[in-house]
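Quick entry between incubations.
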Amino acid sequence: MIATLPSTDAVGMEYLGPEFLTWLWWRGENNPCFHHPDGTEVYVHFDEHLEFRGERSAARRTVLRAGMPGASMEARAALRSGKSLVAARILLARGEDELRFTLRAENLGVSGLRLPTPEGDTREDRLLACLEAQEMFVEDLDLCFATFLKVRCAPAWEAELAAVRAWGESPSPDEKFQPAGA
Amino acid sequence: MLNLRTQSFCRYRIQGELPSPWGEDFHRLLTERRFLPLMADQERTYGWVTSDNLLVTDFHAGTVMRGEWAAFGLRVDTRRVNARLLRAQIDLEVQARLKGMQDAGDKPRIGRDERKELREDLRKELMRQTSPSVDVFTVLVHPKQRVLHVLTLAQRANDLVRTHFADTFESDLLPLTPWSRSLEILDSEARAGNDLRAGLQDLRRTDFGRAVPAESETTSRDGTRVEVQS
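Done. Structure below.
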């Protein structure tokens, strides 16, 4: 059955990345904790950059920066209008380590990843510490993606989708705290 | 000097056989495709250098291995003659030649072939005087995981690394996109007894929102900057 699937990127499946990112945004606001098999917890928080692209009018792009855009009315408006989240600045927290990076949904490309200050007496030690931190980061990112995939490809997706849509329809934090008459 | 504190990267899965990065074969193949400086009339050249120093192409375990990872760089030197400068030089030279012909009492005329030859000579001369722009893109290889990271998101650089890697090791790099990564993860899940692969085959695009035109996208409030592009 799976053998019929192409091993390289399938044409028409480009929405998988944006769906993952949109789902991760929802997860980050509602249940930000992910668990590795060994019990290690990873927390996700969407940071200072959100980029949406229209599916029906593919050329339209909305970019929100600064001031917690994930909580803004504009971000929800973009989602409600059917736009896909194509890039986001994300914070991943594991224990005391916090990593910020921008994830591009299209190819899972990572940019602006800032690793924690490495410990070590020599330059080589610090380099190895960076490589270890990078490996952990990739494991955390893979954990998020695998969690998404296990829901996305299972019957449970319908219920999950209903929850994401309900969240998208609900007022954003900015809208909730908007002063009356503003 | 390799610095990984801040980085951007694309991930690839290494396809096919790859010699061990601890072994001599790996270093010999890197050396065969090492960076060689631009020749006088070359516009671009590229090749492998060590990750610590873009001037060094001496590959051995000590310069390549960093813990479990192999690290090296693809250096790309590009030299381009400024088109405006070339045009200006040609104009000056043409005027000088025409004047020379007039002074000699000849009919001032430069033929098409002569102009073409003049242009090529001046281009080569300017090329010799132009310093190349130098780029280095770090490549990290984890042989056990069969993973390769290219530390840039620039498409051209990624394409060049893939091409040069394939030429060097006769091994292709499969981009770890959402789709290819999905296949891997679901295959692994299936081996663990949780087969969800049929779900991937039946996948349909999800619409998270309503199909209504966005109205509030040009507004800006509460410090959130909004940019709408068409």
